[in-house]
Amino acid sequence: MKIRIAGVLLLLTGMTVANAQQPINLIPQPVDVQPQRGTFTLTKTATIGYDQPKAQAAADMMAQKLNAPTGFGLRPKAGTKASIQFDLNETPNPKLGKEGYTLDASSKGVTITANEPAGLFYGMQSLLQLLPKEIESKTPAQSSWTIPAVRITDYPRFGWRGIMLDVSRHFFPKDDVKRYIDELARLKFNTFHWHLTDDQGWRIEIKSLPKLTEVGAWRVQRAGHFGNRLDPKPGEAASYGGFYTQNDIKEIIKYAQDRNVTIVPEIDVPGHSMAALAAYPELSCTKTPVSVDPGTAFSEWYGNGTFKMLVENTLNPSDEKVYEFLDKVFTEVAALFPNQYIHVGGDECYKGYWAQDPGCQALMKQLNIRHVEDLQGYFMNRVEKILKAKGKKLLGWDEILEGGISPEATVMSWRGIKGGIEAAHLGHDVVMTPTTFAYLDYQQGDNDPPIYATLRTKKSYSFEPVPDGVDAKYILGGQANLWTEQIPTLRYAEYMTYPRGWALADVYWSPKETKNWDKFVPRMEAHFDRADIAQVNYSRAVYDAIVRTSMKNGKLTLTLESEVPNLDIYYSIDDTMPDAFSTKYSQPVELPDGPITLRVITYRAGKPIGHLIVLSRDALQKRAGR
Ligand code: ACM
């Protein structure tokens, strides 16, 4: 009896140890994960196989990923009995769809099956995440190369899982774009929205309109915060910028296709067009020569969504030359990109110059339009006709709803989710990418350089892309947007993308029912360790205290919280540096009057873990009631 109990205990302890050594920390969280007894260890005698030619690409990529850190020199072979086996289902498994897969790992080996190569690619990504973190190393590393036995069945919740990169506000060279796409593909994102044009640079070669890149891709070199940078000086050389040749673009499209990523190009019109107008000023209403904007204060924002452009950055909707220009642009864009969608922007278009323009006034009369805003509808419908003639579908920011657009147009909801709700009710397909959950340019905590707003990882994680009362069939999926006004390098683009990009990978892939922030945190932390080895940058703002204030009975009241559970929060208001011997936060605190400064720091298990957050009374006062 005793012996049997001891045996059972040993077994249980053994299992706990095995699990404790190697917990399963996948991002995104798969649909179903069934841990099994045992482990599989990859050695140099391992084999990689594929059952048919269409499965070879996944096997080849697997070998490439494994060989760099292990140094094993594995070479895939056609066949069915390898220790890492990639098989395509003869009869499709309807549950898996186009992108799903099963992964079966036992002590004997690993089999990944799918209906399509995309599923094998995703099974491969899950297998890589099951391996120890050293697998992320680009150079030979030491590890056990052991994975826990497990059965996984997995497929995405949404077909559209996107990330947008703005390459206009800062130019990202070809190899940076590839690296960014590779990182996204590993998180099972399948759509790369490429914001190629804006006021600060035109980045795509259009052979029939060479000045777009000769002039429009270059601006004067400037430092300082976007929106406050110094104006170009007369005669100053435009030395900052760059663009992608059509060959570069073909190369990137192929690179993305190999990773199951579709590219959606965006040509942002009729607003956000100053770079195009720097090249062809005759396309504006005033026809005034302009420079590519280096991030000056050319716009005024009034806080309620209204704004004014002090420099004209819109195309003239009443000029036929504009549509001839757009036809040339979209002819070349449509020929380059195989994707059915072309994003035509439509956001933040200032109509003030249209209102003053005799041509626009005459057009309004002719169309029997009373509001200048409705000219945007006319413009977008013309653009949609151009795209249709080239076999493409129009996609635009939610402003395209304002002037009226055909029901076939797809709407990207960015000003919250209300545009998406309205669009879905009108029968449009919708991609959800609201500022409130999905804007990766927003700061992640109080220690980040300030920009428009703050968006914490926990908030991104809490996003539900299908609003109540909306038919889910209209919600194609969701996206995260990385605007780069304040992001000059890929390294910083990574910092802003992760961990929020991991949170949104879960939101767009994983079943709603599996969502649980407390369970996401250890997965996120495991990915911090992996990112360190992969040399991918990320923010640690999740460890910083969340500082809130409110006015209660005329007193400023402080509430502190941690985003990651089980942190200890210490603070001071006496101009001392806080540590684990300072006041420990436990409940809301009434702050004394006077010019105090709050300093807050978080600890975990006796060690400081978050940044020191310093806020003046003014800053605390400002956030009261927010
Ligand atoms: C946008 O953020 N202007 C779409």
Automatic annotation (TrEMBL):
Alphabetized, the UniProt keywords read: Glycosidase, Hydrolase, Signal
**Domain (Beta-hexosaminidase bacterial type N-terminal): residue spans on this chain:** 24-155
Pfam families reported in the protein's UniProt record: Fn3_assoc, Glyco_hydro_20, Glyco_hydro_20b
Q: Where is the signal peptide?
A: 1-20
From the UniProt record, list the reaction(s) this protein catalyses.
Hydrolysis of terminal non-reducing N-acetyl-D-hexosamine residues in N-acetyl-beta-D-hexosaminides
Q: What's its top-level EC category?
A: hydrolase
Q: Start and end of every Glycoside hydrolase family 20 catalytic domain?
A: 158-511
Q: Does the keyword Signal apply?
A: yes
Q: What is its EC number?
A: 3.2.1.52
InterPro entries, alphabetized? Beta_hexosaminidase_sua/sub, Fn3_assoc_repeat, GH, Glyco_hydro_20_cat, Hex-like_dom2, HEX_bac_N
Q: Which PANTHER family match?
A: BETA-HEXOSAMINIDASE (PTHR22600), BETA-N-ACETYLHEXOSAMINIDASE (PTHR22600:SF57)
Q: Which family does it belong to?
A: Belongs to the glycosyl hydrolase 20 family.
Q: What is this protein called?
A: beta-N-acetylhexosaminidase
Gene source species: Spirosoma liriopis
